[in-house]
Structure formats: structure tokens, C-alpha cells
Amino acid sequence: MLVKYIRILFVFVLVFISSTISAQQTAWFTINNSYKTGLELFDKGKYAAASEYFRQVTQDRMLHSATTENAQTLSLLKENAQYYQAVCALKLGNQDAENLFLAFIKDYPSSVNTDLSYFHVGQSYFNKKNYPVAIEWLGKINSGGLTHNDNAEYRFMMAYSFFALNNNSNAKPIFARLKDEKNDFQETSIYYYAYISYLDKDYKASLAEFERLKGSKAYASSYPYYISALYFLDKRYDDVLAYTIPALNTVADQYKTEMYRIAGATYFAKENYNEAASYYQKFQERDQGKTQNNQDSYQIGYTHFKLKNYASAAKELEKMDEPDVFYQNAMMTLGESLIRINNKQGARNAFFRASKLDFEKQLKEEGLFNYAKLSYELEFHEVALDAIQEFIKTYPSSRKMNEAKILQSEVLLSTKDYQRAVDIMESIPNRTGEAISIYQRVTYYRGLQFYNERAFENGISMFMRSISSKSDPEIEALATYWLAEAMFEVRKYGESVQQLEKFLALPAAKNTDVFNYANYALGYAAFQFENYNKAATYFTRFIRGNEKDKNTVNDATLRLADSYFVLKNYGQAMQQYDKIIASGVKGEDYALFQRGMIQGLQNQNEVKISTLQSLLSQFPNSNYADDAGFEIGYTYFVLNNYDRSKGDLTGLIAKYPRSSYIPRALVTIGLVDYNQNKDDDALVSFKQVVNDYPTADEAKLAMENIKSIYLERSDADGFIAYANSTNIGNLSSAEQDSFTFQVAYNRFVKGDYQGTYDGI
Predict the structure, then answer these.
(1) CA-based R_g, the chain, Å
(2) Does residue 717 come out as left (phi exceeding 0), alpha (psi in the -120 to 50 range) or beta?
């Protein structure tokens, strides 16, 4: 508008000059004509030609000869010509344009065209996108000297230049005024104000301005994206979908990728994972990974996870490598996905990564717990133990604390650290479910440890705790069985029998590998109670049962034979002993010895001797060698083969000087000598028993035989003196008088009356 004003002014000047100066004045005509021609060419955009005419005006010398009034008019004409010359240079892109404006401003600092000069130079630099220089020139303008439209353009160029230089704090206030004014830049200012508000996260203001652009053709291809984004940021998900889906048909191609992303994210937020997957797929097809970020990758992966496309979820989530809150969430979802496709090792690694990030404490906690759990399942027991101990120490108030303690106990169970497992489980109040199950197992196994260490009382305590935690019927049955065994070991035979009978009554007992052994244990318990019929019954059941081992069967066979032996069922006893002898297993020497004893009881003394001699020849170092040696010698004594008896028994004493049979052997030797009327020799053997083995039962028998010999000798004083010299004699006065009377009576019976008298 200012340019038009200048043109009108100077047309008036021309008319004025024409009316006051003679038309015959050629110089005036030339100047006026040049200026007029220059304006005409300027209007036609012929800036080079126009510039030449303006130059002619500025270089004319007529001003010096003009009158004062004409001089002022010519000065104004030249001022404007110089201004237009600079404008032409600017339009032509001449390098001297800026200098021409500077010269003009210097020559006419108060000219109405000065602000226009700043405006044009600033506009030129603005169009060249040289925004710093544009701001420098435009900043010199006194906006009051500009027309309404130029003022609006000037402010817009200033605002946009600031914006282009990321100086939004200066740009925003200018756009704020322009957007609410009626001018050619209002719509554009609305757009940039809305955009800057968007960048400033002033979403409410941004949305309000973008919505003003609805129907705008200029921004029809872009504002729908921002409106969609702002609806999404405001969590107006229904509005997002209602607006965005149709807008995808009209929005510019460059925004479609983002619009698909927004649609996918909106459906994700609404938990409509099928639709989310569809739009995310379109987003990825267009984006090709160029802008896809961690949040996108997490939400896409999680969408696949919710749709049970676990392999696709894992593939998407494994792309992520930049740690942030979405990465931490992604690692948790990745772990769950990999578990479902049986890749526990990969899942373990994912949970470990989540446990090392601090973005979300809950995820960090859960990651560590899951890492410990999978480490245990994959048998990284030491790693699992370290991880679960770290969890318990780091998260003492965790809602998973009981689960953690259970897991820790399971790890300790696998490493056989049962006592620690027991201690941990007993720290859990009000155990339920899995905790009861674990406690039942750890107390059972700790009980077994105590049993094997022969700490039977401690084992009993653990087995009773295990039985009280009724979870696994089979563990309960096993604990009951070993409780019985432990009670047997501490001689609580009655309670042991009760527990064994309870065990056999448990349905789950039949599923254990010790079911039949209960019969064996019950047989031993009955044997200890000297209930040999019952013992024989249980030993027979065990031998006929399924679960058994060879050594225990052999032992049960021997005890069955012993039961029959004590019951004097020698035929059955012999059958069982013969089984052991025939199989040549451990205990054969004992079976041979018992066979010999039965033969002796059946008055087959020669056969007995042969059997026992066979034992000594086959098992010279047997624990029953001295037993057999004594029985052979004693059997010869029974057969009145005194020399053989004495010889064998003498050899026994020499060979086994510490044998418990020595007192009996000496007594038998004494009886041999006594029967052969070798009383002195007999006294030597009997007295050796009394002197060397005073606490043995044979010592009393030897003393009785010594007494008999002294009685036969009528030597009351000799016996009394000897008896009182021993530890087992110490005859009372009455006993001494009684023995003296017996001696006297024997003499009387023999007719030795004088001896009778002297003895009394």
C-alpha cells in the first residue's frame, strides 16, 4: 500500500510541475519522463530497465539550478528514484542491493521509505532462508511506518525466522497475536502457534488452534495428524479413532505412517489387540524401522503376546537394545513369551536384564524373582540361590516374600541343604498350599539325614513335623516308615510297631519302595519283644513280598530261622538255615553253626560235630569259630569222649584266650578230670574259673564242683578256708556249720565214726 501511495504522490508532483513549469523546459521533462517510465517498467517486473531510468533520475544535476520550491520537489523525486533503484537491485539479486539500501538509509534516514528498505532487505534474506540476517534487518523496522498488510508480513517473517532458528520463545508470542488478527498470515500463524504449543506440550492450546484449521485447504494434509496426536495425548481414544481412521484417506502421505502408529497405539490403549496389530503392521510396512522407537516395539511385541503369537512377540521385543522404561517392560514380556515357546534360557536372560534396570521398581523386583526361579528350573542352583537371597535381602516387604522363601527352600532342597530349608520354611507363618508341600519334603529329607547320621531323636522330630504337614500322601507314608525305623533304633519298640502298622494301612504306602520293608521291620520288632510267632509271620511276608534286596532277604531268612529255632520248630528252622548255606551268602557260617546246634538238640551229635568242623574248615576266621570250637569239645564230653573233649577245649583256650567261652571250657575240662577221678586237676580248672572269671555264671558252677570235691574229701576246713578267700565265697557261719555237718555226716555214712566225732 505504501508503494501505491508513493506512486500517487509523484503523479501529483508531475502534474504540479507541469502546471507551474513551462512545457518547453526539456530537462524537467526528461527527469519526469524517466521517473514515470521507471515506475511503469517496475510495475511490469522489468527491474533491470526500470533501474536504469531510476539511475538517470538520481544522477541528474538540474537540482542545483532549480528554484527553492522546485528543489524540494526534485529532491523528493530523486529520493524515491534512489529507493526504487535499490528495490530493483534487490529484485534482480544484485550483490550491491544491500549497499544501495544502506546508502539510501544513510542519505535519507528520515524517509518514509526507510522502514520499507529494512522491510525489503529483510524480506529478501527471509526468502533466501537466511533467517539470522533477516531478523537483523527486520528488527530495525518501526512497524508504525508500515501498512497493515506489510506490518502483518513483517511480524510473520520475524516469527517464522525465530521459529526456523528454534527460538520458539520469541516466535510464539508473535504468532499468538497474528493468529487472532484478520490478515493474510492468520491461518499460517494459527498453524505454527498450534505446532509450537504442541512442542511445548501445551496440548490443550495446541488442539484448540489445530481445530480452528478444520476445513483449511492449505493445511488439510497435515493438521489431521496433529489433531489425532493431540486426541491421543489427551486420552480421548474414541475421538482419535472417529477422527483418525477417516482422515487417513485425505492426509498427506508423509503423515500416514504416523497416523497408522497413532491408530495402532490407540487400539492398544483400548486393549483391542486385533485392531492394534492390524494398524501396527501398516505402520511397520511404511516405516521400515526408520522411526520405530522402544515404545512402539514394546507395544507391538505386547500386542502379539496378548494374541498368543509368542514367537512374533519375541522376535519384535528382541530388537530392542536401548534401556528405558519400555525396554524394561519389554524384557518382562519377552521372558513370558519365551517361556511359552519353551526357551527358558532366553527367558532367564530377559528377566535378568529387567532386574538390572531402575525405571520401574516393581519390574526390577519381578525380574529378579523370575530370574532366580528360572535359574533353579534350569539347575543353575548356585546362581539361583544367590539370586533368591539377593531378592529376600533387597525386597523384605515384597508381596512375593513367601514365594521367595519357598523357592529358596526348593533350591536348598536340590542342594541337600535341608536344615537351612527347614529354618526358612519355619519362618513362614501360617503355611498354606505350596509352602506346606515344601515343608513336608524338607523336614522329611532332613529327618533322613539325621537318621543316616544316627541322630535318631532328631530324625524322629523331623519325621513327625513332616507327617503333620499333610500334602503329598507318598511323602507322608515314607516319613511314617522312617519314623518307625528311628523309634526302633532308640528302643521304642512299641511305638515303632504302631507307626509301622499305621504305615501299612496308608493307601500311598503301597506306592513306596519301602512298603515291604515294613514287614521286615515289624518282624524285628516282634523278635525284640520275643513274640516269635508274630516275628515269623512278618519275616515270611517280607520274603514273599515284592520290594526287597538280596542282603535284607538273607537277613530276614536267618531271623525267620531263629524264630522257628526259639519256637523249637527245628524242621522249619533247618529249612531256612539250609537256604542260606545253599546260597553261600553272608551268614552261611552262622547258619552252619545253628544247623549243628539243631542236630545236637535232635541227638545227632556225630552229625553236629561234623557240621561244626565243616564251619571251622570253611570259615576259620568266623565270629562263630570259638562257638563251634566249644560246642565240638562239649559234644565230645557229652559223648564221654573225654580225651578228645579235653584236647579240643584246651586247644580252644589257647587259640581264643579272650573268648567268652573260656569259663565254660574250663568248667568242662574240670568235669572231664573230675569224671576221670583227677580231682586235683579238676580243682585247678575250677579254681581258675573262680579266680579269673568271678562274675561269670560258670564261676558259681565251678564253686559248687569245688565244694563237692572238698565234701568227698571230708575237708570242711579246707573248703571253708578256700571259699572265704575268694570274691564269691564269703560263707556265713550258718553256711560254714552246714558244710561241716555235711562232711561229718558223709564220714558217719562211711562208718568213720571217729572222723565224724573229730569233725564235729
Answers:
(1) 62
(2) alpha
Cα–Cα distance list, 337 to 279, 297, 310, 423, 606 (Å): 22, 14, 5, 35, 85
**Per mean pLDDT, which range of 14-28, 358-372, 414-428, 553-567 is the poorest?**
14-28
| pLDDT at residue 15, rounded to an integer | 45
CATH code: domain of residue 694? 1.25.40
Distance of CA 293 to the CA centre of its chain: 29
b/e string for 262-299 if b means 16 or more Cβ within 10 A?
Answer: bbbbbbbeeebbebbbbbbebbbebbeeeebebbbbbb
Residue 684 lies in a domain: yes
Is the pLDDT score of 454 beyond 80?
A: yes
Task: Name the grid cell of 98.
Answer: 544491500
Count of H-run helices and E-run strands, the chain: 41, 0
The SS3 of residue 277 is: helix
Instruction: Supply the pLDDT for residue 25.
Output: 55
Contact 308, 324 (CB under 8 A): no
Say which residue the cell 528520515 belongs to: 110
Q: What is the pLDDT of residues 681-699, one digit of tens each?
A: 999 999 999 999 999 999 9
The reply to whether 323 falls in a domain is no
Q: pLDDT above 90 covers what percent of the chain?
A: 56
Range of the domain at 672: 660-760
122 assigned to some structural domain: no
> What is the pTM for the complete model shown?
0.59
Q: Is residue 20 part of a domain?
A: no
**Spatial separation of the C-alpha atoms in residues 431 and 373, rounded to whole Å:** 20
